[in-house]
Amino acid sequence: MSITDPRLQSVVKTYDIRGLVGKDLTEEVVEAIAAGFVDEVQAAGTDVIVGHDMRDSSPAFAAAFARGAQTRGADVVSIGLCSTDESYFASGYLQAPAAMFTASHNPATYNGIKLSRAGAQGLSMDTGLGAVRDRAAEYLRDGIPAVERPGTFREEDVLERYVAYLRSLVDLSGIRPITVVVDAGNGMGGLTVPAVLGEAAGLPALPITVIPLYFELDGTFPNHEANPLEPKNIVDLQRAVVEHGADLGLAFDGDADRCFVVDERGSAVTPSAVAAIVAVREIARARAEDPDAEITVIHNLITSNIVPETIEAAGAVPLRTRVGHTLIKDAMRRSGAVFGGEHSAHYYFRDFWSADNGMLAAMHLLAEFGAQDRPLSELSARYTPYAMSGEINSTVDDVPAAFTRIVEAFTPRADFDELDGLTVTGRVAQDEPFWWFSVRPSNTEPLLRLNVEAADQATMARIRDEVLALIRG
Question: Which residues cross the membrane (predicted)?
Answer without folding.
Answer: none
